[in-house]
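Progress report, Aim 2. The chain analyzed during this reporting quarter is listed below.
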Amino acid sequence: MDFTIIADGLAFPEGPVMMDDGSIIVVEIEAGRITRVQRDGWRETVATPGGGPNGAAIGPDGALYVCNNGGFAWGRMDDLLIPGGAAPDYETGRIERIDLSTGKVERLYWECDGHRLSGPNDIVFDAEGGFWFTDLGKHFAHHTDHGGLYYATPDGKRISCAVHGPNMNGVGLSPDGKTVYTALTTIGDILAFDITGPGEVAPSPLTAIPGRVVARYPARVLLDSMAVLASGRIAQATLVAQPGIGVADPATGAIEQFDFPDLLTTNIAFGGADMMDAAVCLSTTGKLALCRWPEPGLRLAFNA
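Predicted structure tokens for the chain:
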């Protein structure tokens, strides 16, 4: 896959949002910062929410909604920046609303049913204006908090957990809006859930084994964020053993792999007039890549 690096020196970029004006908004997790990058590499700070801003999406009001994981502890492996467990000053995970014109940060949610959010990770809006998000959980020295798949409204009035489960990372919606997908980072599975109502999914035969597996990656291939293509296939960021973007067909389970040169190639997002421009986050090396994808991505509900 041919690509161009349009920004480097970023502090673990993730959560790319392709804007219709051609700019790309990314989070810089280590710096607790939201940054807008132009195609010529010029960049500006949008907001500094602190913690660990992670997945991001434009909501129906034009604001940026951010999954904030609360912050990581960080390490170095040679020149690579590597995230670890909870930051020493970790407080809580949360969902934040950011006004793109002023940079004002508002915390919308930090708990659900009396339990704190652990590490909100990725987010996608449905056509009705609500959003699905995943909570990856949080690692501590002697225990791990688990998260799951959640649904919330942007007015701050409703949040619910649709599925409890460990290491749920990327999230996406099928083109018809009837299925929500999530990626299990350490297991290497993409799961599908049939949506039965706002924030509700069909029950699984076994609660401890949620959803149905629509694609499975080889051992030691870890999964991160995802984006759904117009065809309904899933562009899945893959880590460690085979870093890059794997395009999975949820109907057959077949996977086509596109390699990228970063151990933690964490995210992909689509934009442009034909939705074939792709922004890819090369996170450990702090780079944002731009390429032309072989097929168009699915246009998200409220990007502008």
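The domain at 4-292 is CATH 2.120.10.30 (Neuraminidase). The two ends are 27 Å apart (CA to CA). These observations will guide the mutagenesis work planned for the next reporting period.
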